[in-house]
Amino acid sequence: MPDLLLETPVKSRRQAEPASRLTAPIPPRIPATTTDTAAPALSWRERAARALVRTLAGVPLPVLHRLGALVGWGMALIPNRQRRNALINISLYAPERPAAELTRMRNRSLRELGKTLFETAPLWLRPPAEALSLIREVRGIELLEREPGQGLIVLSPHLGAWELAGLYLSTRGPTAIFYKPQRLLDELIVEARRRAGATLAPITARGIKLLLGALERGDNVGILPDQEPREEKGAVFAPLFGVPAYTMLLVSRLARRSGAPVIFMIAERLPRSAGFRIHCLRAPEGIDSDDDMTAAVALNRGIEQCIAICPDQYLWSYRRFRRRPSGERKIYTGSLRDASAIEIARRRRKKVSAV
Fold first, then answer.
1. Angstrom distances, CA of residue 57 to CA of 118, 159, 168, 250
2. Residues facing 155 on adjacent strands
3. Half-sphere exposure of 91 (CA within 13 A, CB side)
4. Distance from C-alpha of 136 to C-alpha of 128, rounded to nearest angstrom
5. What's the whole-model pTM score?
6. How far apart (Å, rounded) are the C-alpha atoms in residues 94 and 343?
7. pLDDT digits (tens, 9 = 90+) for 148-187
8. CA distance linking residue 153 with residue 299, whole number of Å
9. What's the rounded Cα separation, in Å, for the pair 2 and 256?
10. In this structure, are residues 349 and 243 in contact, taking their beta carbons and an 8 Å threshold?
11. Is the pLDDT score of 89 beyond 90?
12. What is the mean pLDDT of residues 19-32?
């Protein structure tokens, strides 16, 4: 992590705009862009993916969810790595549950993953007001209020409709979102996230400076906190579900530098395609600690609290424990059979408990 995060705190230079209510979102603020060169030719994969996304964007949400659930059912039926990895993670999350219950939860989570994939198209491409109209309730909305001129760090794990959570945050005032460029659909994703006025900060030293500047101005900053970081000096191994997970320190350093409060925000998918419920939660105490381990433990505890709200909607197929402490064996390996995945997780839990 760059040394700029270890400097003395900075002060805000202007007051934050009053937060708008759900019923009156801030009109989109799309930055003007110009280009002097022709855009590069798109690959056939990019063209096909864009066509698919634009087609799905016009399909009603209930139909999208049924299609997504069908795709998720297929993922659960056919042995594959995503299915195995999800079962390993769920077995680490709830080791006390019997194998049959773990498998059922894995199957439900893959159906929810299918819904996530299909509902993303309208959340990206429909007008912001139309996408926001899917929000039925906002719990903990008072946590989005803060002192004039004070920034706010908002953490949204890969849970539920995280794209909707980011869109909603963008309508609450100027927002900078920490963003990892994608190999496919990157330009479309950038345009989608900017359409309500958000600024995208790349996962680089320059991006971190943009986040600091946003907090200094009293803006919102959105971060996905459960991604495995790359920086050797910007992360530590801290327990997540009792298992060491390579955890970012960026949040604690931003909070200390800026004095900005930290909260969590998720968009829970309601049953029967009834819409979404936004949850805002206080971050656990210690998330801004100058002790790296204390801060990382608090960050992961906050992620656990979010997952407890709607565990089936977490992205369990993500290899969150891919990087291991020195001397530990890989977790995401072995047979694709369910029994093998559960056994891998149980052996890992026993090893952690014995330490």
1. 9, 21, 18, 34
2. 223, 264
3. 25
4. 15
5. 0.87
6. 13
7. 999 999 999 999 999 999 999 999 999 999 999 999 999 9
8. 12
9. 15
10. yes
11. yes
12. 42
Hey, what are 311's tokens?
Answer: 């565990």
Residues 218, 15 contacting (CB under 8 angstroms): yes
* Residue whose structure tokens are 């991604």: 227
Return the closest-CA partner of residue 116 out of 155, 72, 75, 81: 72
Residue 231 pLDDT greater than 70, yes or no: no
Check if the beta carbon of residue 210 is closer than 8 Å to that of residue 4. no
pLDDT tens digits along 153-163: 999 999 999 99
> How do strand 175-179 and strand 199-202 relate by DSSP bridges?
parallel
Q: How far apart are CA 267 and CA 301, in angstroms?
A: 18
Q: Which helix (H) or strand (E) holds 41?
A: none
**162-170 and 99-125 helices cross at what angle (nearest 10)?**
40
pLDDT of residue 79: 96
Tokens (6 digits) for 324: 């291991």
CB 185 within 8 A of CB 53: yes
Radius of gyration, alpha carbons of the chain? 20
Q: What is the DSSP letter of 313?
A: G
Vertex 320 angle, CA 315 and 324, to 5°:
165
- Residue 221's DSSP bridge partners are 153, 176
- What string of H, E and C letters represents the secondary structure of 102-149? HHHHHHHHHHHHHHHHHHHHHHHHCCHHHHHCCEEEEECHHHHCCCCC
Nearest by Cα to 130 from 83, 34, 195: 195
The structure tokens 């064996």 sit at 329
Bridge partners (DSSP) of residue 135 are: 276
Name, in order, each residue with C-beta under 8 angstroms of 30's C-beta and a sequence gap of 6 or more: 194, 195, 197
Residues 254 and 260: beta-carbon distance below 8 Å: yes
Burial of 276 (0-12, 13-18, 19+ CB in 10 A): buried
CB 27 within 8 A of CB 195: no
Exposure of 272 in the CB half-sphere (CA atoms within 13 A): 0
Tokens of 268: 């829970």
Residue 47 CB coordination number (10 Å): 11
Please name which of 160, 74, 81 lies closest in space to residue 113, comparing C-alpha atoms: 160
